[in-house]
């Protein structure tokens, strides 16, 4: 029944010149996701509206699924587009639409007309009243309710005419590329994929870094991270995944530093490495899946001690989320099932029995002096041996 979709997007705060930046980014991303579907589509922009029109046959559900992954889209409205052959022809198309969509359903409705084409010979109020009357005549189970209707029938009078009544929710947010690029610290857990998704949803392109520690972490643990990056990239577009061998650094910290400080010092080195990668690749911030109190390394004191080595902003979108809420999002974006596969990540191999939960930054800095002999070369080697995986 439908050959086209009207795309609703958030317009608040997006005015003037920015509006074009926003719309261009939105349309670019729509083209990308639609190119992965079976159909051929044209994107038509006119007077503050974006339409997707299918040429020939296409898979309706697949198309909706694709558009639901485009940040910035607030609603997807399957729309019947028809040429303007006057009111009588419009009225027939509308009755046919109501028949196919709702048949003899008992429901309330109202007609809402937008008359953009001022040459259409009737005012929008008149069109509302006339069409409403004809629908009432034809469908005895339907009633008008102008305040809380079950169905709002939208009629858009332009150079052609659009008729729609269903709005399928989109993800909201801002189109990718409208807010620069950031580096996600991506582990195999539940949290970091969600964190990446959330920041990308605000228009930020994502790259990622994964620290592995062979042979303590397996090839399968790494593959799991690659799989997670691929799942996240369905929303965020291509991700460049940097895989950093962290084994030597981790062993060295283990050898030299007090064991109750291991995790914090390790995390500080992860942040330092991620930050250098970020700066080298034009990323403006770091992203982690940290959340206050979740584990010993995420108490407020621990977060402060980790943050101490960062000069770039660190985005922690899950900071005040309960685990349950994070899980809900991870299920929604389809990363949960992969995240709970039981492969060790490098933090679980070297955890102390009793890690400090209230680290003091001055003491941690002092402990790191114990590493001064070799840590710089080790960092150099970690950068030099990085593996880059392009996730598309
Ligand atoms: P997650 O579920 O995201 O793994 P977590 O609850 O297991 O998080 P931690 O292991 O303390 O928490 O890690 C906190 C954050 O540090 C992660 O969300 C992630 O951003 C980053 N991180 C942890 N381990 C790694 C790793 N091996 N590679 C890259 N980033 C990591
Ligand atoms: Mg983890």
From TrEMBL:
Subcellular location, record wording: Cytoplasm
Catalysed reaction, written as an equation: [ThiS sulfur-carrier protein]-C-terminal Gly-Gly-AMP + S-sulfanyl-L-cysteinyl-[cysteine desulfurase] + AH2 = [ThiS sulfur-carrier protein]-C-terminal-Gly-aminoethanethioate + L-cysteinyl-[cysteine desulfurase] + A + AMP + 2 H(+); [ThiI sulfur-carrier protein]-S-sulfanyl-L-cysteine + a uridine in tRNA + 2 reduced [2Fe-2S]-[ferredoxin] + ATP + H(+) = [ThiI sulfur-carrier protein]-L-cysteine + a 4-thiouridine in tRNA + 2 oxidized [2Fe-2S]-[ferredoxin] + AMP + diphosphate
Sites where the protein binds ATP: 185-186, 210-211, 267, 289, 298
Record keyword ATP-binding present: yes
Leader peptide range in chain numbering: none
Family: Belongs to the ThiI family.
Function description: Catalyzes the ATP-dependent transfer of a sulfur to tRNA to produce 4-thiouridine in position 8 of tRNAs, which functions as a near-UV photosensor. Also catalyzes the transfer of sulfur to the sulfur carrier protein ThiS, forming ThiS-thiocarboxylate. This is a step in the synthesis of thiazole, in the thiamine biosynthesis pathway. The sulfur is donated as persulfide by IscS.
Protein name: Probable tRNA sulfurtransferase
Gene name as annotated: thiI
């Amino acid at each position: 029944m439908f050959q086209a979709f009207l795309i609703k997007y958030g317009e608040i705060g997006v005015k003037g010149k920015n509006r074009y930046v926003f719309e261009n980014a939105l349309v670019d991303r729509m083209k990308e996701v639609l190119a992965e579907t079976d159909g051929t589509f044209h994107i038509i922009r006119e007077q503050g509206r974006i339409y997707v029109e299918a040429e020939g046959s296409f898979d309706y559900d697949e198309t909706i699924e694709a558009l639901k992954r485009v940040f910035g889209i607030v609603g997807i409205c399957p729309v019947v587009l028809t040429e303007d052959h006057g009111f009588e022809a419009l009225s027939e198309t509308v009755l046919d639409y109501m028949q196919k969509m709702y048949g003899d359903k008992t429901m309330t409705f109202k007609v809402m007309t937008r008359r953009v084409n001022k040459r259409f010979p009737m005012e929008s109020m008149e069109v509302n009243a006339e069409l409403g009357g004809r629908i009432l005549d034809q469908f005895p189970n339907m009633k008008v309710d102008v305040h809380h209707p079950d169905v709002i029938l939208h009629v858009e009078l332009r150079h052609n005419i659009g008729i729609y009544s269903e709005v399928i929710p989109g993800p909201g947010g801002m189109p990718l590329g409208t807010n620069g690029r950031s580096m996600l610290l991506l582990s195999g857990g539940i949290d970091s994929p969600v964190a990446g998704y959330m920041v990308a949803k605000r228009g930020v392109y994502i790259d990622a870094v994964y620290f592995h520690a062979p042979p303590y972490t397996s090839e399968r643990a790494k593959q799991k991270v690659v799989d997670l990056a691929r799942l996240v990239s369905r929303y965020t577009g291509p991700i460049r995944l940097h895989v950093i061998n962290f084994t030597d650094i981790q062993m060295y910290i283990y050898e030299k530093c007090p064991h109750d400080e291991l995790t914090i010092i390790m995390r500080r080195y992860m942040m330092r490495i991620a930050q250098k990668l970020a700066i080298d690749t034009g990323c403006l911030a770091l992203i982690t899946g940290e959340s206050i109190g979740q584990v010993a390394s995420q108490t407020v004191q621990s977060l402060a001690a980790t943050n101490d080595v960062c000069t770039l902003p660190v985005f922690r979108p899950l900071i005040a989320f309960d685990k349950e809420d994070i899980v809900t999002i991870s299920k929604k974006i389809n990363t949960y099932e992969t995240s709970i596969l039981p492969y060790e990540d490098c933090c679980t191999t070297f955890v102390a029995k009793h890690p400090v939960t209230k680290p003091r930054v001055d003491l941690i800095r002092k402990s790191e002096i114990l590493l001064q002999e070799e840590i710089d070369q080790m960092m150099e080697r970690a950068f030099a041996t990085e593996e880059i995986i392009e996730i598309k």
